[in-house]
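User: Predict the complex with beta-D-glucopyranuronic acid.
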Amino acid sequence: MKSSLLTLSLALFSCFQMQADNGHGLWLGTPLPDNSCQVFIPNNSSQTLQIASKELYSSWKGGNIQLKFNAEIDNPEAYRIVIQQNNVTIAGSTDVALLYGSYALLRLQNSRLNVQDTIVNESPYFNLRILNHWDNPDGSVERGYAGASIFWAKDIKNRRDLIQDYGRANASIGINATVIDNVNANICMLTTEYLLRVRDFADWLRPYGVHVWLSVKFSSPIAVGGLQTADPLDPEVAEWWKDKCQEIYELIPDFGGFLIKANSEGQPGPNDYNRSHAEGANVLARALAPFGGRVMWRAFVYAPNDPDRAKQAYQEFMPLDGQFEPNVIIQIKNGPIDFQCREPYSPLFGAMQYTQEAVEFQITQEYLGHSHHIVYLAPMWEEFYGYANPASMTAAAGVSNIGDSDCWCGNVMAQSNWYAFGRQSWNPVLSSEEILNEWIAQTFPQLPSGNSSIFDMLIGSREACTDYMMPMGLHHLAGDGHYGPGPWFWNPRVRADWQPPYYHKAAADGLGFDRSSNGTDAVSQYPDDFAKIMDDVDTCPEEFLLWFHHVAWDHIIQGETLWNRLCHHYQHGVDEVAKMQQMWADVATYIDAEIHAQITEKLDIQYHDAIWWKDACLEHFRTFNGNLPYPDDVMPAVNSLEDMKRGRMRLGLWGAPTKDQLDGVRK
Ligand code: BDP
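Assistant: Here is the predicted structure with beta-D-glucopyranuronic acid placed in the model:
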């Protein structure tokens, strides 16, 4: 193939220039000042290949690189990198594959791996790796803790550069699709005015291989189309969706499709017309199919047809297996409840035999301390893939933690979760350790190799968070805003399954939700081998104990009573955060001062909150168990239950006891 040498001056790289080190540059590094590598790309190259060659030209420290089409590589996103002495060839069958290969090469270099004489063959595990932005047209972000929407705002200025930076970041980790509005969708998204804006986003993201999707409201035929009904079996409704898709694809020929939240938390859906989720999904699927579009239909439903919310999605969807059009994917949250710090996998995974399934993870930390707590989430997702076989899935979706904050995610450490979601969706077999090492090497190149402080600080952070919030299978104990603890919250006018006592079931006889065969039997929704282990209180792993069982306070676990064991978990969580603070202090000399200060502040908040969680949960549980004493090596509560209930500790975020005060309480 004929090639032309691309020689560019670095002045052209304005869009790759980072602001001062505020973290905006993510894991993508700084362009080299005087680079001398040579990049050869096919003649008449697309914008995508221009981007690839600019990236390589500005950052590759080796010699010549050739990007070549190779039609024999089947998967349109797969690439092959051959590094021989000073020459590199990147091959793939499409320009996006070559872009992915280019980013992979830079990742290898910047992760400080030895790349001499190496051959890399990579293809993505899932063909759809998609971010879900819960962004509203007014610029707010539902459960967003990193500023306003990067896509929407009333007085939006031209967002082209920002959106292209976003596309670049996604391409560098293989994310190939994005839903740019909230699942609690606004009807305006399907108006022509908004579709024109969606077209701009799609145009800007296309060169990066990122397809745009929309969340839409099921009642759009009424609200946007002026029809009397949105009944999916009504021919006029079907026609309306077809026409709408025609309009969309004229504007955006590679539009991805629709994401739908239907008959969930007040959203309209097919049940409003006595139709099933399959009938609802199929009317959209048929409208999208001629254009190659797909429907992601969410399984996050919990109609109260069973007293145990954890069973409801399975009950609703299993009978529909086999009824969905082939271009429908059921998007299922990783666990059966709602993005808790630990849940068993949702029993729907692997259960539906004839239906495509996607996992939905939450990258934004709705229940895990918002962007105030430093929590590396990949170990949670890795745990999920260890139980639920990724081979049963078509796609991975991640609810984004991105906003217009300088560093995108509210703090620099939270970027690791965006990064990890992309890498793990490309290859769910990659370990969370490998991913973290890559991310640290690229994000903090100045950290001496061999210094493991940041790794050590992050790798156990999800377990630490689980310990100080909801250890041993406890779940849904958060109060207002899903931030701090609220195990006592109870309002008879609010549905029970939105409130903590429904979940922890603390009582004089013990703690935990009995989902065993003696209880709600949720355990029976799982395959036999898993169910058997979980069903028996003696074989159920400790981390799922109070999820599946109601356990007596004096039940013995590893030689300790439940109460003592629980106290030790909470204390361990607090202690781990103290260690994280120390590890972060230790690397101060290597980290940009602004970023160091940002994370130090977050860790202070996290430490205070960890104590708040520990005190609130343990003190509340003591009111049921006859005020059992704290074990000697556990710090007694520093906040009184009454204060915490009155919300004093909510202000404690800013006025919590200092470390010295806390150390004074510690024995
Ligand atoms: C819950 C969130 C809510 C979302 C809902 C969903 O609290 O804001 O709309 O999930 O996923 O976790 O639809």
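The pocket of beta-D-glucopyranuronic acid is lined by residues 142-143, 183-184, 261, 265, 300, 338-339, 366 (CB under 6 Å).
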